Amino acid sequence: MKERSLKTMVYRRKTRISKPPIRRSPTQSSFQRGLDPVCNPNEFGLNYGKIELNLGGKKCIFENGDWMIDGRFQKSSVHVGKVNKRSEELTRLIEENNFLKLKVEVLLVLLSEIKVKSNQKEASNNDGK
Fold first, then answer.
1. Which of 48, 50, 68 is nearest to 59 (CA)?
2. Region 103-108 average pLDDT
3. Which Pfam families does the UniProt record give (predicted)?
């Protein structure tokens, strides 16, 4: 009988859930430390080093802005000639834009001179009447 009462006491005992320990806050808040990523790159995830992947049995590494597959640099899919052609076209368009800005400036100067002359003629005509 004692065994039975002992078993029932064990099963009837309420389980006590312990509280987790209180988290300690850092000594300085992020506002006091400043949010400059240059000062703390680890906190903002900017210091990631090199990335290594294993895809289909080939080891791929991303380091210094380039992908290397099995120790060789992977060339970009864009053809070099297209890039050169686009850069030449870009410089040509920039020069053309600068030329057109200069033309507009000259035309505005001419327009202002004509406006001044016409105002002077009107003033002289009004004085003559």
1. 68
2. 97
3. Chibby
Two tokens, residue 114: 């004509």
How large is the average pLDDT for residues 21-38? Answer: 62
Query: In residues, how long is the chain?
Result: 129
At 75-104, the pLDDT tens digits run: 555 566 777 888 899 999 999 999 999 999
Using alpha carbons, list the distances in angstroms from residue 108 to 24, 101, 116, 122.
Answer: 68, 11, 12, 21
Query: ∠ at Cα 50 (71, 59), nearest 5°?
Result: 35
Q: Collapse the DSSP code of 67 into the 3-class scheme (helix H, G, I; strand E, B; otherwise coil) and give the result.
A: strand
pTM for the structure as a whole: 0.38
The answer to whether 37 and 30 are in contact (CB under 8 A) is no
Strands 51-55 and 66-69: unpaired
Nearest to 85 by CA among 77, 96, 93: 93
- pLDDT at site 115: 96
